[in-house]
Amino acid sequence: MQLGLIGLGKMGGNMAERIRHAGHEVVGYDRNPGKRDVDSLEALVQALQSPRVVWVMVPAGDPTRTTIHELGELLEAGDVVVDGGNSKFTDDKLHADELAEKGIGYVDAGVSGGVWGLENGYALMVGGTKEDVAKVQPIFDALKPPAPTDESGQELPGAGFVHAGPAGAGHFAKMVHNGIEYALMQAYGEGYELLTAVDLVEDVPGVIASWTQGTVIRSWLLDLLVRALHEDPDLEQITGYADDSGEGRWTVEQAIYHAVPMPAISASLFARFASRQDDSPTMKAVAALRNQFGGHAVHAVRTEEAERPA
User: Fold this and answer.
1) What positions carry a catalytic annotation?
2) Final residue belonging to a domain, choices 149, 166, 183
3) Are the CB atoms for 211 and 218 separated by under 8 Å?
């Protein structure tokens, strides 16, 4: 099928490539002339056959809101808009209602996979009507990871994709996913700091690498921490300053609103706030993990700060 894709950055560009590898046609638009196939939203819409599917992969907030509003003026009844960014779930109902007035469908898609998604596939949590989701399903199938199999070779259903509910459910699910991610990274970072704080343990990277096989705490995030420590064993090249994308805050807000106790995720969010006030080995590890799985920028240590006295 055809897909219009708006936003060809780290995530969007890799997604376009994976979709093309699956045999679909992607017409891409980006503000950067070097990346795009067309030079305007109008040209993108004109290049697609009806019914059109247009996937928006731009920063959350005003950029996404503006883009979806402009698409509402260009698309026709029967077309579908997909918001694949990290939008707040409360925006989805507004977008769905605005587009529905013109007969245009809307699907929100929480996408996880970071810079590794091109190779490994993307986990997808989507919201919308069954009819609208069905129109996009071939693209979802192209993006998601290969289905795992049981001992007999039969595919196990459900892994890597879920139609979570109506509009907003996909982004809500991704929000909770990111909140859990905050807590996991914080736990690994704190464990790393304790290991480095004692003289007894002589090979901290080796200890963490040993946890990646056979233990109950093994995970892809742990694999990425091993990778980060291989590249910079003492994490000397970055500061312990970790940004937050907003979804951790929204998760805690919803926990408060629904009276759901969430001490671990809340503490991991507040730890990121603390990281902007003082440097710590824990937040160095968190910053390194964000760079490893998502290509997020790290705050480099200045040369004179990286030099240690003999």
Assistant:
1) 174, 181
2) 166
3) yes
